[in-house]
Amino acid sequence: MNDSPVLARKLEARLGAKVVDCTEVLGETTIEVLPENWLAVARFLRDEPEFTFEQCMDVCGVDYLSYGSVEWDTTDVSSQGFSRGVEGKGAGRFNWSERPRPGNVAKRFAVVAHLMSLQHNQRVRLRAFCVDDDLPSMPSLVDVWTGVNWFEREAFDLYGILFEGHPDLRRILTDYGFVGHAFRKDFPLIGNVEVRYDPEKRRVVYEPVSIEPRVLVPRTIRDDSRYEQARAEREAGTK
Question: Element (H or E) spanning 101, and its range?
Answer without folding.
Answer: none
